[in-house]
Design brief:
This protein is mainly alpha-helical. The protein is built from 21 helices and four strands. It folds into two domains: 117 residues, no CATH class; 288 residues, Farnesyl Diphosphate Synthase. A hairpin with a 2-residue loop joins strand 3 and strand 4. Helix 8 packs antiparallel against helix 13 and helix 13 runs antiparallel to helix 14. GO terms for molecular function: metal ion binding; prenyltransferase activity. It holds the Pfam family polyprenyl_synt.
């Protein structure tokens, strides 16, 4: 009996050119031992630059392989079957050799030696899922496999900050603006929810960028969940809010509004961070532009979404821009003076952040020859005494008083615009919710 193997380059094995791949018949008594057999199955790297080179899987090689395989099959049909106790048949070894000639280029020899014979059926995994069943499920991955538990895990930081009661000023503002827009209740609920989601998600990012320790009187979300998970949760909610907009009657217009105002929000935030990180004091005009983008962006988004769902044709944009300025400048002022604010956010946190708030900007420009406040900001102080000294310095330059007067003027302008809108829509100004909201937010 003989064994058919594919000739490989091996020392002392025949008188065949290294560039050739031919089949030779070995007497049974010359069958290589296991270690040599493995070595013979290792593919010899051919040099394609040699003229006599025949591609490994080319026609010439395939013809030889097919002829020899037919010969092996014919011989196998004439040979008696072997029992389980006998060594592997020559036919089996020949088949292994033929199949290994195409597989050996991708697998190291040592890995081939560990593979079970081709006649052995793969054993199923003993785990809860077999390997094949996992392969069968690949095409359905991501389709209906996401669970509520996983969703809650991703939303954790967002749900954490949302569970802390806020002012809900934006929700109240949307309700007041609807006296003029008369948006259907279902659409109004979607808009209010989207604005709430975007606001809370933006606070998660804002607290990280400002390195804030407190938010709404308790540890900031990134202090509890970590920075990476908090960032991911905030970004995730941005897209959840975008998905909510698809429920509106005019989703295409809503998408355009969303994109424009979210870009504006990030432009404003980017400038605010740039001034802080480079210790560059902006002008008041630059600051008001930044606030109009950063803080006013979500206010405008709410109004513009309401306009896409309304048939009234009311233009509230001048009013909403003024309201955005009032909201941010009052926040700047309270950060330096309101005891209740410091309890929820920390003592004079804007100074620790090195932030150029409205009173800080005025004070620096009011005493450009004295760099004391700029020097304090550069240190990003944490000591209460240092920050209190900075506040006293701003008071001495008249910056706190200037801020109060500026807010008062903005509030008067906002109320005048609200009355004009009432006249335009035929509403009674005595019951105008916006007027009372402006009075409340401008109280400092």
């Amino acid at each position: 009996m003989t064994t058919i193997v594919e000739q490989q380059l091996a020392a002392g094995f025949g008188n065949i050119s290294p560039r050739c791949h031919e089949f030779v018949s070995l007497p049974q008594e010359q069958k290589p031992v296991d270690g040599i057999w493995t070595a013979l199955e290792t593919t010899y790297e051919l040099d394609p630059s040699v003229p006599e080179f025949t591609e490994r899987n080319g026609p010439a090689h395939d013809d030889v392989a097919a002829t020899e395989l037919q010969s092996v099959k014919a011989e196998a049909e004439e040979s008696p079957s072997t029992t389980d106790s006998q060594p592997e048949s020559d036919v089996t070894l020949a088949k292994e050799s033929l199949s290994s000639s195409t597989e050996s280029e991708a697998k190291p020899a040592e890995n081939q030696a560990q593979e079970p014979p081709s006649t052995t059926e793969p054993q199923p995994s003993e785990g809860p899922e077999t390997f094949m069943s996992m392969l069968d499920d690949i095409e359905s991955l991501g389709q209906g496999r996401w669970t509520d538990h996983k969703e809650q895990t991703i939303r954790g930081p967002y749900d954490y900050i949302s569970s802390a009661p806020g002012k809900e000023f934006r929700t109240q503002l949307i309700g007041g603006l609807n006296l003029w827009h008369r948006v259907p209740p279902e659409s109004l609920g979607i808009i209010a929810n989207v604005v709430r989601m975007l606001h809370n998600a933006s606070l998660l990012i804002d607290d990280i960028q400002d390195n804030s320790n407190l938010r709404r009187g308790r540890p900031a979300a990134h202090s509890v969940y970590g920075v990476a998970q908090t960032i991911n949760s905030a970004n995730f909610v941005y897209f959840l809010a975008l998905a909510e907009l698809q429920k509106l009657r005019n989703p295409t217009q809503a998408l355009e509004v969303f994109t424009q105002e979210m870009l504006a929000l990030h432009r404003g935030q980017g400038m605010d961070l740039f001034w802080r990180d480079t210790l560059s004091c902006p002008t008041e005009a630059d600051y008001l532009e930044m606030v109009s983008n950063k803080t006013g962006g979500l206010f405008r988004l709410a109004v513009r979404l309401m306009q896409t769902e309304s048939n009234m044709g009311v233009d509230c944009m001048p009013l909403i821009n003024v309201i955005g300025l009032i909201f941010q400048i009052v926040d700047d002022y309270k950060n330096l003076s309101d005891p209740d604010y410091t309890q929820k956010k920390g003592y004079y946190e804007d100074l620790t952040e090195g932030k150029f708030s409205f009173p800080v900007i005025h004070s620096i420009h009011a005493s450009s020859g004295n760099p004391v406040l700029l020097n304090i900001l550069a240190q990003k102080p944490t000591a209460f005494e240092v920050k209190r000294h900075a506040v006293e310095y701003m008071d001495s330059t008249g910056s706190l008083e200037y801020t109060r007067k500026f807010v008062k003027a903005l509030a008067a302008r906002a109320k005048a615009l609200a009355v004009e809108l009432d006249l335009q829509c035929g509403n009674d100004s005595s019951s105008n919710v916006i007027l009372s909201l402006v009075d409340k937010m401008a109280r400092i």
